Task: inverse folding
């Protein structure tokens, strides 16, 4: 038993990596292993920059938490406010006064990066975007994001609206704990059917979900101030990576840097199972229970990053 405890404690030791400079096109970048949160590579990862629509990673996180807490349901109908309907930028052209389900609006955010859908859901959950943004910043503080301040739910450029690659990786990691979100971030194209009989063809802004094996999210971004950004998640051979690039000069540069980071991660690291859930860890005496002893087993595999 003592050897097992020592082994499990060793899993907490962070992995230090020396690597040549990667993702040179982007001003800021980071590569994180999901299960441990270990940083495999970073460059200017604490620099505060405009996150553009990567902001919606936090928006989706709060939506998923509201669903998990049963404050809302996927089938709930949301009445689109004039405020939501008049949003500019990327949108699915929602009509004021129309009603859409929570699930359809979530799809619009995950696939088409819809600003109008983001505002509609934020208002539905919190009553106003102001109240929702306050929750976004509260969540940032709770998960240790020290270089982030949100001013809106969609990511359009605004004074004092900023984040960092490291913080966006942390937020992305939190979102990925809600596995159901991958049902939506992995959709490449789909029609959004509206109450008036019209439909909007949505194509995922993250092209890597189709062209890079293992990519299943999460969020692109672009504004004139932010440049081209992407928080990407990918899983291969039981290892999930999160890469974030910020302020790349072009869509191609953003894609190239992301692919370079993911290739580096999958090419140089792997997850090794130290103990699996079938391992017999012995028995523990129970005092005052119906059974005198209980078998000790892990609830999930104990792994190490190599």
Result:
């Amino acid at each position: 038993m003592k050897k097992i405890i020592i082994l499990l404690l060793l899993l907490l030791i962070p992995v230090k990596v020396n690597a040549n400079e990667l993702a040179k096109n982007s001003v800021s970048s980071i590569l994180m292993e999901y299960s441990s949160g270990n940083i495999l590579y970073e460059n200017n990862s604490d620099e505060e920059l405009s996150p553009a629509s990567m902001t919606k990673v936090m928006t989706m996180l709060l939506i998923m938490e509201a669903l998990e807490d049963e404050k809302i349901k996927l089938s709930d109908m949301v009445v689109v406010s004039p405020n939501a309907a008049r949003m500019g930028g990327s949108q699915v052209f929602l009509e004021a006064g129309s009603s859409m389900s929570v699930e359809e609006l979530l799809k619009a955010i995950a696939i088409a990066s819809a600003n109008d859908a983001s505002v509609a859901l934020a208002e539905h959950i919190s009553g106003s975007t102001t109240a929702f943004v306050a929750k976004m910043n509260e969540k940032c503080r709770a998960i240790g994001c020290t270089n982030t301040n949100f001013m809106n739910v969609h990511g359009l450029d605004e004074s004092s609206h900023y984040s960092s690659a490291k913080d966006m990786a942390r937020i992305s990691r939190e979102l990925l704990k809600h596995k159901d979100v991958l049902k939506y971030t992995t959709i490449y194209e789909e029609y959004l059917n509206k109450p008036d009989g019209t439909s909007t063809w949505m194509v995922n802004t993250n092209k890597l979900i189709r062209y890079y094996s293992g990519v299943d999210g999460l969020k692109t971004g672009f504004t004139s101030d932010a440049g081209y950004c992407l928080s990407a998640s990918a899983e291969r051979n039981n290892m999930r990576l999160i890469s974030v690039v910020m302020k790349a000069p072009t869509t191609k540069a953003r894609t190239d840097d992301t692919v370079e980071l993911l290739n580096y991660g999958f090419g140089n690291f792997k997850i090794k199972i130290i103990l699996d859930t079938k391992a017999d860890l012995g028995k523990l005496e129970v005092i005052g229970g119906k059974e005198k002893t209980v078998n000790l087993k892990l609830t999930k595999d104990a792994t190490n990053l190599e």
Q: What stands out?
A: The first helix runs from residue 2 to 10.
